[in-house]
Design a protein that fits this description.
Helix content of chain B: 40-55%
Structural class of chain A: alpha/beta
Strand content of chain A: 5-15%
Distance between the termini of chain A: 44 Å
Shape of chain A: globular
Order of helices and strands of chain B: EEEEHH
Distance between the termini of chain B: 20 Å
Oligomer: heterodimer
Number of strands of chain B: 4
Largest sheet of chain B: 4 strands, antiparallel
Number of helices of chain A: 8
Largest sheet of chain A: 5 strands, mixed
Radius of gyration of chain B: 17 Å
Order of helices and strands of chain A: EEHEHEHEHEEEHHEHH
Strand content of chain B: 25-35%
Number of strands of chain A: 9
Radius of gyration of chain A: 19 Å
Chain lengths: 248, 102
């Protein structure tokens, strides 16, 4: 999970993935949804060195279960991914990791089902990315956009672990920097990268309005994007706990 | 959680990635202000109050579970901090209501 941000190191700002969002920090929401899948066995968080203490404190407070490994990111998204893959290299070489899922920590509303969909597609085909059709785009001068189908790409993106590691190793040797994980995979492997349906609610926190929207979408979902996979029955309303309220 | 946070976000008005001042009422974001151009987004009370009430309900319902998880993680630390946390609650809610209805 990429939480290192875009590399700006000035000002007194908080990394946006550490912002409060409906009672938790932004980045722990999607950790929660992803780790409900029984085969998600290892979680690695790519952070800024400056955020290490805040991230550790947040994880201790908000995330139960298997400890999460922390890796310091690089100057670009590609470099951060490479650092993460290097940390996973022994496990990948030992055959302990089949699929690597890369997710942007600024997308807190990626639910368990979306993680399951991309992992299943990657295990079958080699790679999978969630996309949303952008059918109504028009070029700046009125011309139609290139190709007959334009999509917006989201995360989580999932790939077979060994080919992904090999692709990034080759990219490092060539000095290639990809715009996203799929671009590196497509350049250095023959494995197909399949598109799976993304989720309109899987917003990326970019603008201030996105925080308002994410709050409302979480409330609308009763703070549960597990698709019914949470072990205990979730209680989101007083009527769930007060017998008198339930009768009414 | 603090009532004010600062974070790098892209401003819809000036288009720059800049520090934004974010003000919270309880757990809910109440307003944002771009420190570069001053662009201010604020939720109206009419919109914020129902959202706050709904959020408060969820906080109350989930509180026992959250307390149990915290106690299970660090029983001694939890027992040590509990009295202070209880004493801080009235002030915390007073600040939240003041922010909500000002």
């Amino acid at each position: 999970m990429l939480a290192a941000g875009e590399g700006r190191r000035t000002g007194h700002h908080t990394n946006k993935v550490l912002l409060p969002l409906a009672g938790r920090r932004v980045f722990t929401w999607s950790i929660r949804w992803a780790r409900l899948l029984p085969y998600v066995e290892r979680t690695l968080l790519v952070i800024r060195e400056d955020d290490r203490d805040a991230v550790r404190a947040t994880l201790a407070r908000e995330v139960d279960g298997t400890p999460i490994d922390l890796v310091v990111g690089g100057d670009s998204r590609h470099a951060s991914e490479w650092h993460a893959l290097q940390a996973l290299e022994p496990a990948i070489n030992a055959g302990e990791v089949d699929v690597v899922v890369i997710h942007d920590a600024a997308r807190p509303l990626a639910g368990t089902q979306l993680f399951e969909d991309v992992i299943a597609a990657a295990a079958e085909h080699g790679g999978a990315i969630p996309v949303r059709d952008q059918g109504n785009l028009v070029g700046r001068n009125g011309e139609t956009p290139p190709g007959d189908r334009v999509v917006a790409v989201q995360t989580p993106q999932a790939f077979l672990a060994a080919p992904l590691l090999a692709a990034y190793r080759q990219a490092a040797a060539d000095g290639f920097v990809g715009t996203d994980t799929a671009s590196c995979m497509e350049r250095y492997t023959d494995l197909p990268v399949r598109c799976v349906p993304g989720d309109a609610g899987n917003v990326k926190i970019t603008f201030p309005d996105d925080l308002f929207l994410a709050e409302r979408l979480l409330a609308k979902a009763d703070y549960d994007l597990s698709g019914g996979r949470e072990r205990h029955r979730r209680r989101a309303h007083l009527r769930d706990v007060l017998p008198t309220a339930r009768r009414r | 959680m603090t009532d004010v946070e600062y974070a790098d976000l892209r401003c819809e008005s000036c288009g720059e990635v800049a520090d934004h001042e974010l003000r919270y009422a309880g757990r809910l974001l109440e307003s944002t202000r771009c420190t570069n151009c001053g662009h201010h987004i604020v939720l109206t009370q009419r919109s914020l109050v129902p959202a706050y009430v709904r959020d408060l309900e969820q906080r109350m319902v989930s509180k026992p579970g959250r307390m149990l998880r915290r106690a299970a993680r660090d029983p001694l630390g939890y027992a040590r901090q509990l009295p202070g946390a209880v004493l801080r609650q009235p002030g915390k809610f007073w600040r939240e209501f003041r922010e909500l209805f000002r």
